[in-house]
Write a structure and sequence with these properties.
By secondary structure, the protein is of the alpha/beta class. It folds into 2 domains: 3-166, Rossmann fold; 184-287, K homology (KH) domain (GMP Synthetase, Chain A, domain 3), CATH 3.30.300. Helices cover 36% and strands 24% of the residues. The chain has 9 helices and 9 strands. The protein has helices spanning 17-25, 68-82, 101-108, 126-139, 156-166, 184-199, 233-240, 245-262, 282-287, and strands at 3-11, 43-49, 52-58, 86-92, 114-119, 144-147, 209-217, 221-230, 265-274. Strands 2-3-1-4-5-6 form a 6-stranded mixed β-sheet, sandwiched between helices. The protein has a 3-stranded mixed β-sheet with strand order 7-8-9. A hairpin with a 2-residue loop joins strand 2 and strand 3 (52-58). Helix 6 crosses helix 8 (245-262).
Length: 293
């Protein structure tokens, strides 16, 4: 008997969805930072066994959109309800509600199995854990409740085993050696964007998009050329930094991660361009793979 299906992970920003998905896969597919809205796309990660294929989907954190880019991000979340065989709803210690009532109603009225994961329990005490457990089990009575710590690995394997039990019988949807549905350039863009999220403050990381224009793989090296898009000239200056030092740091750190990811030497060239108001421009959003409407 072979099982296969889609397991879609949703929740508010910063609840640890990407950390959990990477723990399931054993690879760093989704970028992780302490900033909200780190995940912008819906990213599939595929875990294969002899008799199963789990297709995990990490989606952007649920927010109330303020501009076109954020509206497109929420479109990715909406699609997570359409094809799920198992739905994972993640919350964290101290959280009281989902930021969108319509999404919450979909979860509580779901006809498919729902796993409600209370994350970051390593930061709580027993009293708080019991209080939160009662709160969420009363809010989502249709869900199977499991406390976890994605960063510490607590209960992660138990959740994965439960997912396999819940999957329908089905042949594999993807080739057994495939890890994700995203092309290589996507992970180059994400590695660079992660470093920008880590090292720059305020609005800068949210005004940035990365486009890898060249990707040439040779026997011993991959040569890449990526452009960092910003919305204003002042942002371009901040990204580059004094004598190019800030941009150089992003390039060095991203290259190290990419060499680990691809398993070979990487040569990375970075450039910065102004692309005015791209976050509110539907044509630009479609170019970057966001706007599906």
């Amino acid at each position: 008997m072979h099982k296969a299906g889609f397991v879609n992970i949703i929740g508010n920003p910063n609840v640890g969805k990407s950390t959990l998905m990477n723990a399931f896969i054993g690879e760093k597919l989704s970028i992780i930072t302490s900033k909200a809205q780190t995940t912008r796309h819906r990213i599939l990660g595929i875990v294969n066994g002899e008799d199963f294929q789990v297709i995990l989907s990490d989606t952007p954190g649920i927010i109330k959109p303020a501009y076109e880019l954020q509206a497109s991000m929420m479109d990715f979340v909406k699609t997570a309800f359409d094809d799920a065989d198992v739905l994972i709803y993640m919350v964290e210690i101290g959280e009281k509600e989902l930021k969108d009532d319509a999404f919450f109603n979909k979860i509580t009225n779901s006809k498919i199995p729902v796993l409600l994961l209370l994350n970051k329990i390593d930061t709580s005490n027993q009293e708080q854990l019991e209080e939160q457990s009662q709160l969420w089990q009363s809010k989502v009575p249709n869900a199977e409740f499991i406390p976890i710590s994605a960063t510490e690995g607590f209960n992660v394997q138990n959740v994965f085993s439960r997912i396999i039990e819940l999957l329908p019988e089905s042949p594999a949807f993807y080739p057994k050696d495939q890890l994700t549905d995203k092309p290589e350039r996507f992970f180059v863009n994400e590695a660079i964007r992660e470093k920008i999220l880590i090292h720059y403050k305020k609005e800068i990381p949210y005004a940035v998009e990365v486009d890898t224009e060249e990707f040439f793989e040779e026997d011993t090296i991959i040569r890449m050329r990526s452009v960092i898009m910003v919305e204003r000239e002042t942002q371009k200056g901040i990204i580059i930094g004094h004598k190019g030092t800030a941009l150089k740091r992003v390039g060095i750190e991203a290259r190290k991660d990419l060499e680990k990811f691809f398993g070979k030497q990487v040569h990375l060239e970075l450039y910065v361009k102004v692309n005015k108001n791209w976050r509110s421009n539907q044509k630009q959003l479609r170019r970057f793979g966001y706007n599906q409407r």
